[in-house]
Amino acid sequence: MRWKGGRRSSHVEDRRGTSNGGFGFPTGRGRRVRVGRKSAGGGIGFVVLVVAALYFGIDPSILLQGGPSVSVDSGPARQPTEQENQLADFVSVVLADTEDSWNEIFAQQGKDYIEPSLVLFSGAVRSACGLAQSAMGPFYCPGDNKVYIDLSFYDDMRRKFGAPGDFAQAYVIAHEVGHHVQNLLGISDEVHNAQQRVSKVEGNELSVRLELQADCLAGLWAVHADRARDIIEQGDVDEALNAAAAIGDDRLQKQTTGRVSPDSFTHGTSEQRARWFKTGMQGKSINDCNTFSVSRL
């Protein structure tokens, strides 16, 4: 990915090296972390959290919902390494590119794009959606319009999920920004409200459609940015498709439990995630990413 000459975003908050104390794992039932009127967007990170829960024999609903908390030490504060700072620079460039792209896309529809902030953290972090630990991976909080990421997640992508590459890393940011776009358009609230009226299985299907749309919006960003700024190099698209496929519900469930349970999917299969990212790259507008209007995902 051609990124080193790109603009840096002014919306990056670096909270690495700060101590956030313990992290509360809420208990209860349901599908989302609920704090006040806002809940944390599913994003890529929640896939990792659920996988971690399954691996350690924990009910994922315990980690994702409101209720009593269990304290988890975030560990001692430390200074970022030079490699981590270079990665933070990369993230800043990707965020800036999403700003440029979505400002243009929204303007084409006569809308104003509100740029999100991105918070770099290590260990644990406080957000308007509650406390979060790095094990959750990247997530978007609609309560403060911020994307949160511990850069160690990128090492996990490479080592644990076999998804290396800078464009794969850019896809992660673009997916979470996709949740921000959904929030601005009111899609996230519509889905959450609908989930309160249906069964858990039906609610999971709505969650899948929301996540696949975020994958598609990431693809829409990629093609728009490449047309405007020529950022994609040979092999980049394959990196992003590989990353999308690596965190499909079916693949992760197979790896962690040895079986696949479609009714419990919340993010989509490997094939679906890669295909909807590709659909976004072939699209021209947000309407091309309407996962809620198709019968077959």
Note the topology.
Blueprint: E1 12-14, E2 22-24, E3 34-35, E4 38-39, H1 45-55, H2 60-64, E5 71-73, H3 82-108, E6 117-120, E7 124-127, E8 130-133, E9 139-141, E10 146-149, H4 152-159, H5 166-184, H6 187-195, H7 200-229, H8 236-246, H9 249-257, H10 270-281
Parallel strand pairs: 1-6, 6-10
Antiparallel strand pairs: 2-5, 3-4, 7-8, 9-10
Helix pairs in contact: 1-9, 3-5, 3-7, 5-7, 5-8, 6-7, 7-10, 8-10
Proportion of strand residues: 5-15%
**Which strands sit side by side, in order, in the main sheet?**
1-6-10-9
Apparent shape: globular
Q: Which percent range fits the helix content?
A: 40-55%
Q: Say how many strands there are.
A: 10
State the domain count.
Answer: 1
Mean pLDDT: 82
Runs in which pLDDT lies below 50 for 5 or more consecutive residues are 21-38, 48-74
Task: Determine the number of helices (DSSP H or I, runs of at least 4 residues).
Answer: 10
The largest sheet is: 4 strands, mixed
C-alpha end-to-end distance: 29 Å
Instruction: Write down the secondary-structure element order.
Output: EEEEHHEHEEEEEHHHHHHH
How would you describe the overall organization of this protein?
This protein has one domain (about 10-280). The chain is about 45% helix and about 10% strand. The protein is built from 10 helices and 10 strands. The strands form 4 sheets. Strands 1-6-10-9 form a 4-stranded mixed beta sheet, with helices on one face. It has a two-stranded antiparallel sheet with strand order 2-5. β3 (about 35) and β4 form a beta hairpin. α3 (about 80-110) packs across α7 (about 200-230) and α5 (about 165-185) packs across α8.
